[in-house]
Amino acid sequence: MGANMQRQAVPLMQPESPIVGTGMEYVSGKDSGAAVICRYPGVVERVEAKNIWVRR
Asked: Which SUPFAM superfamilies does the record match to this protein (predicted)?
């Protein structure tokens, strides 16, 4: 039954971020260690293999 439902699913042409979140997205991203989280708010200016520059 699951394979049949997956076959019927329609992919989105222009996917968007959800407007409402549970708050667990931040926690799971932080705990996984896969996300880079900045201590201060700012705008990302440049990204290289080992460095990320953020303008405050």
From this structure: beta and beta-prime subunits of DNA dependent RNA-polymerase
Residue 33 Cα distances to 26, 36, 38, angstroms: 11, 8, 13
Q: What are phi and psi of 5, to 5 degrees?
A: -65, -40
Residue 1: per-residue pLDDT: 63
Return d(Cα 7, Cα 55) in angstroms, integer: 45
The model's pTM is 0.45
Q: How many residues does the chain have?
A: 56
Nearest to 36 by CA among 46, 26, 21: 26
